Amino acid sequence: SGDQYFTSYSLVLLAIWFLQNCVTPAVLPKLQDVTQLKTTSTGFQMRNLQSFNGIQCVWAIPTSWKSQCTLSVGELFVSFLHFVGMEFNWNQWAIVMKDAIAVPKEPIGSNHPGAQIPPMSLTHPATAKMEMVCMDPFETGFNTLGRIGDERIDEVLDAFRVTYELLAVQH
Questions:
Q1: N or C: which terminal CB in the chain sees fewer CB atoms within 10 Å?
Q2: What pTM was computed for the model?
Q3: 103, 94 in Cβ contact below 8 A?
Q4: Cα separations in angstroms, 118 against 21, 75, 89, 109, 123
Q5: CA pair distance 29, 34, nearest whole angstrom
Q6: Among 104-108, 140-144, 165-169, where is mean pLDDT lowest?
Q7: Cβ–Cβ under 8 Å, residues 100 and 57
Q8: Among 95, 124, 123, 117, which Cα is nearest to 15's?
Q9: Which of the residue ranges 63-72, 78-87, 107-116, 137-146 has the most confident prediction, judged by mean pLDDT?
Q10: DSSP-derived pairing of the beta strands 93-96 and 101-104
Q11: φ, ψ for residue 150 (rounded to 5)?
Q12: Is 88 within 8 Å of 80 (Cβ atoms)?
């Protein structure tokens, strides 16, 4: 089917999540940790992001934050390929971008960050086909990876693995 694809939006979200959570020290800050709402303190720059459901969001982002990571872009890219294709357990975990976390794919309470994961994604690994889940930070309940059909998931992960293996040899 033509609806089974891996979007560039999903790839960017995965890369952001990886650079926030899987590299030490982090390459990108988790905005959930470093932003302050409506502050004018020295060292902060006010930015209007956009209006959500009629509510104007104004965030102050520290302008002084700087990554201490010394890895090259090539090293980061190879690590990202390894993480997505070989390390992250897509059967057991889902990525929730809004909260910059990974949550287990199991039934959870409604006040848990992973509660926005659609019920179809909350499957038991032993009884269901694998589903890749990366929840959109702006649209609650939308899995950006949900358009990848079951038969295509292995192809997508294989592409990450093969590319990793080719580049890791040269690195």
A1: N
A2: 0.73
A3: yes
A4: 23, 34, 18, 13, 10
A5: 7
A6: 104-108
A7: no
A8: 95
A9: 78-87
A10: antiparallel
A11: -50, -45
A12: no
Residues 100-118 have pLDDT tens digits of 889 888 755 555 555 555 4
Q: What is the mean pLDDT of residues 31-50?
A: 50
Query: 3-class DSSP state for residue 105?
Result: coil
Long-range CB pairs of 156-159, under 8 A, 24+ apart, other chains included = 156/6, 156/132, 157/84, 157/85, 157/90, 158/85, 159/85
Q: What angle do CA 103, 107, 108 make, to 5 degrees?
A: 65
Residue owning tokens 């950006």: 144
| Amino acid type, 27 | V
- Bridge partners, residue 61, by sequence: 45
Tell me: the pLDDT tens digits for 11-21? 999 999 999 99
**Distance separating alpha carbons of residues 86 and 83, to the nearest angstrom:** 6
Euclidean distance between the first and the last CA atom of the chain, given in angstroms as a whole number: 37
Tell me: pLDDT of 131 over 70.
yes
